Amino acid sequence: MKIEFKQIGVIHTPFIRLEGMPVQPAGAGGVSGTVEIFGEYREGLKDLDGFSHVILLYYFHRSQGFDLSIIPFMDTEPHGLFATRAPRRPNQIGMSVVQLDMVEDAILHVRNVDVLDGTPLFDIKPYFPEFEGVTGIRYGWLEKSGKTARETKADDRFK
Amino acid sequence: MKIEFKQIGVIHTPFIRLEGMPVQPAGAGGVSGTVEIFGEYREGLKDLDGFSHVILLYYFHRSQGFDLSIIPFMDTEPHGLFATRAPRRPNQIGMSVVQLDMVEDAILHVRNVDVLDGTPLFDIKPYFPEFEGVTGIRYGWLEKSGKTARETKADDRFK
User: Fold this and answer.
1) How far is the C-alpha of A100 from the C-alpha of B55, rounded, in Å?
2) Hey, are the CB atoms on B80 and A48 less than 8 Å from each other?
3) Residues of B with Cβ-Cβ distance to A127 under 8 angstroms
4) How far, rounded to the nearest angstrom, does the alpha carbon of residue A149 sit from its chain's CA centroid?
5) pLDDT score of A48
6) Residues 48-87 of B with CB under 8 A from A
7) What is the DSSP letter of A117?
8) pLDDT at residue A61, as a whole number
9) What are the pLDDT digits (tens) for B149-159?
């Protein structure tokens, strides 16, 4: 089964190249960007400005193909692809939680954006973590990794 | 631009009808399900069992079309679609954080699943909330809603 999705907007950021880009929103602290929604979807933004953070679902448009075992930016050992957030995946869907500063017409002003300039947008969802009902979190291979998301930058390994 | 995605697995849950289903993982506490990954992607699951929670991205396969202004399960007032997690969206991509109990071969045993039985899977990502760098959360219209995600069940409004 193949399913078709369409672009509903575009994400504008200062990152025009993958190299040196933060690998998680935590590493993109203070980096501002905008999310431009195409006019036909504008009505759907009503009341979004009450949320401090939103989830962006977008297309890893610069990634092609995938390997099921990879060495992620945050480690030096190979891991299963689904245990990482690497951009080269069977379905190139990216997800980031960003801070929402303002909604102006069909433009969201956001902070902590860790995506490439020109990234096609699929969806926006409100962020409300307490609804996930999550307690007692373990995070596998990342616990042993000496690096932190805040310090780690991308390189060209997933081009 | 249209982008094609493919199913990489299927989610099995006790919920065969939308009516009465929990509307968020918090309301599906204790509900067990399985995520079956197609054999060709199995190698990508390595090391996933180190994570206590995973993010599932899936297809709202029983939803068709969308309205940009809707009355969500959690309220009695209309809101912009992107300020809700309603299943009828321009791109029918659903997202849930579920508890991962065990990985057995190509099957994930999960808890707190709030999706319909037979839901097609697009992606699995590890969950590590502290990397989002999120502080000072406001959650808009949901703060005024008297209902909680734990109590709210779905009805047929988004069929």
Assistant:
1) 22
2) yes
3) 134, 137, 139
4) 13
5) 93
6) 48-55, 57, 59, 68-69, 79-85
7) T
8) 93
9) 556 666 666 66
